[in-house]
Amino acid sequence: MALLEVNNLDVRFALRQGEVHALRDICFSLERGERLGIVGESGAGKSVAAFSLLNLIAKPGFIAGGTVTFDGQVLNRMSERGLRKVRGNRVSMIFQDPMMTLNPVLSIGEQMVECLKAHRRISSKEARRIALDKLQQVQIPSPETRLDQYPHELSGGMRQRIIIAIALLLDPDIIIADEPTTALDVTIQAEIMALLLDLCEQHNVGLILITHDLGVVSQVTQRMLVMYAGRVIEQGPTREIINDPQHPYTQGLINALPQMATPGEKLNQIRGSMPSLSNLPSGCAFHPRCDFINRADGKPRPPAPSRCLNLSNPATAVWRVIWWLKCSKIAV
């Protein structure tokens, strides 16, 4: 049994005009120490999926169906008290903006000690020792000094290292990183991702990396999910998907990488934008933007090709061809 299993996860938002499906039939698993990437454009449902794993969806959002099972426990059916024992303790999350995560009126040391004492019965002196050790692990210079500093006194890259150190404080089994390098420059991004990868390998920690950057995913993760309009449209080993994408949206994301463009010419891009979840097109949700489609076919929306399936299995090849013919008209 996998450490984390997500089966047919359905998340909705109750709005005045009716319920909006943010996620539909999301299925994936994560083994201990495995690294999984979730990619897609803004609005694809990546962050909603991450928040759903720890049941952090705020109203009017709610989990309408499916299960999130962690180490035999169904998290979306646990009480708030039970979830507090899992959040931060066994499953940690790194959010996009460190300044929104760190408390500006508390020193770094106070925040780290508070986190430790919330989950363990230890003295303040022992908690501070553990906090210092974690700062050293994430290669913070002069860690003793940093413990007594406040978030605004640190650079963006150093704040992100602090967040990673806090995520590692309680030796979690899984770290969920929601676009952890969005606000950083390219050089610092590479350093942070290399650090995160190294720490996960050292401590055998599972990683769920959420990003829109396929280049990062190809270097860091072992498996990946591609999301579009609240659905998983493709999943499997990262190398196989990068080398042989089965969905035109995945191919479009790969073609949009800067290194795929001809020098001196415009970068490749997917035409159009992500559709509104309250007004999804008929058939395949991607067909209005797809270069392989002549027109909308008007047929009911088919299930996602990767729904609860391992796309690396050759036995699914015929099924994928049938799905493709159902949801699109191939230009000839």
TrEMBL record:
Descriptive protein name: ABC-type dipeptide transporter
Catalysed reaction, written as an equation: a dipeptide(out) + ATP + H2O = a dipeptide(in) + ADP + phosphate + H(+)
Keywords from the named record: ATP-binding, Cell membrane, Membrane, Nucleotide-binding, Transport
Protein EC: 7.4.2.9
Bilayer topology: Peripheral membrane protein
Molecular function as annotated in GO: ATP binding
Recorded family membership: Belongs to the ABC transporter superfamily.
Domain named ABC transporter: residues: 6-254
Root EC class: translocase
Top-level taxon of origin: Bacteria
One Pfam assignment: oligo_HPY
Subcellular location: Cell inner membrane
InterPro entries, sorted: AAA+_ATPase, ABC_Ni/Peptide_Import, ABC_transporter-like_ATP-bd, ABC_transporter-like_CS, Oligopep_ABC_C, P-loop_NTPase
